[in-house]
Design a protein that fits this description.
Blueprint: H1 2-13, E1 22-26, E2 32-39, E3 43-49, E4 52-59, E5 64-72, E6 76-77, H2 81-88, E7 100-111, E8 114-124, E9 127-143, E10 148-160, E11 173-187
Antiparallel strand pairs: 1-4, 1-11, 2-3, 2-11, 3-6, 4-5, 5-7, 7-8, 8-9, 9-10, 10-11
Amino acid sequence: MKLTIFTLIIGTLLSFSATAATSYTVDSKHTFPSFEINHLGFSMQRGRFNQTSGKISLDPELSAGNIDITIETASIDTGYAELEKHLRGTDFLDAKRYPKITFLSNRLSFNKDQLIAADGLLTLHGIAKPVHLTVDHFYCGMNLITLKNTCGANVTTTLKRSDFGIDKYVPKIADEMTITIQIEATKN
């Protein structure tokens, strides 16, 4: 018991800093890429993907690192089963033919020890395109629940679905989509 309390105190006082090349595994229970798209001008429709995995390496001292993320296309979740079936189908994601969405980057941008952006290659619907991700929140520290060093971020970008060959109902259903990813990763 004393060791646990001591560990919690140290973890609280000494926030973990990613100051050397450190490898992390994406925490799939706390990582959910989501999207927002204008639906016929009436509303902003939202959804998310429930299965994400990957590895991240960070070296803020060298302003370097890499990201390798995989999203299971069929894990799309909108809260409406009929819509999800349609989005998994050939009109949109074609999840049987393209079961994974990937993002690979070795071009990370830092402001001191804060990750602020990542440029990489997004592969969606079998098409790979360069994408710029903006990081508007980044924090590394001791997770006081798991007692593991963890990094988390909130990441955003905007893309055109037609750039990836998903152009059904454009422009009635907007071409431009906002993507937001809340991500947590645990130190290996």
